[in-house]
Amino acid sequence: MKSLDVRGMACPLPVVSVKRALESAEGELRVLLDDGAPRENVKRFVQGRGYQVQEEQIEGGFAFTITGAGSGSAKREAAPTERSGATVMLIGSDRLGDGAEELGRLLMKNFIITLLDMSELPDRIFFVNSGVLLAAQGSEVIEALEELGNRGVEVLSCGICLDFYKKKELLAAGGVTNMFTIAESMLQARSVVRL
User: Fold this and answer.
1) Which of 38, 72, 87, 135 could crosslink 14 through cysteines, CB 3.0-4.6 Å?
2) Is the separation of the CB atoms in 74 and 22 below 8 Å?
3) Residues sharing a CB contact under 8 Å with residue 45, sequence separation 6 or more, in sequence order
């Protein structure tokens, strides 16, 4: 069994390292990783590709034993050649447009609430930079984001960004993700809407 230690690595290196190891591994892969975002991101990544994960708490973090053949999307020879059809929205600020901050915040709030009235919704909304403030406690759009989540929209915030703004413990809507997942989703999307 191949082993990999990704403890102490900054996002998105744990996911990238596991991806590379899965591309070259045959059989089981044992991964040592930190709790929190690395654990969540790696687990979501491998399970999303059809692998099974057995978790074990160890001193200093967690150990994953990853088994199964996966869906093939992690294999180099099965790299996607066409877009998946997903619509991805990337929100990089808690404001919409340039100009007065108060107006920009009002416009962003109205935009997100207006999404609830659209007949076609994005498949995923990624929040980066100050955009993560929209998914944290105190935001005026939490209810709208929760409703979007209930309608099948994946609402995900960048873990590094949440850490930077000291909002990780205050995330109120959706989940935490990493730059690898954001980049991969954008590159495989049918369309990307950037705000």
Assistant:
1) 38
2) yes
3) 15, 18, 19, 180, 181
Asked if 38 contacts 6 with a C-beta cutoff of 8 angstroms, the reply is: yes
Residues 60 and 154 in one domain: no
What's the sign of the alpha-carbon dihedral 130, 132, 135, 137?
A: negative
Does residue 72 sit within a domain? Answer: yes
Q: What is the residue range of 111's domain? A: 87-194
pLDDT tens digit sequence for 157-191:
999 999 999 999 999 999 999 999 999 999 999 99
User: CB-based burial of residue 123 (10 Å sphere; 0-12 exposed, 13-18 middle, 19+ buried)?
Assistant: middle
| Rounded CA separation 33/152 (Å) | 30
Burial (CB count within 10 angstroms: exposed 0-12, middle 13-18, buried 19+), residue 77: exposed
- Strand (E) or helix (H) holding 75: none
185 and 96, same domain (yes or no): yes
pTM of the model: 0.73
- Residue 149, judged by CB atoms within 10 A of its CB (0-12, 13-18, 19+), counts as middle
For residue range 99-114, list pLDDT tens digits in order.
999 999 999 999 999 9
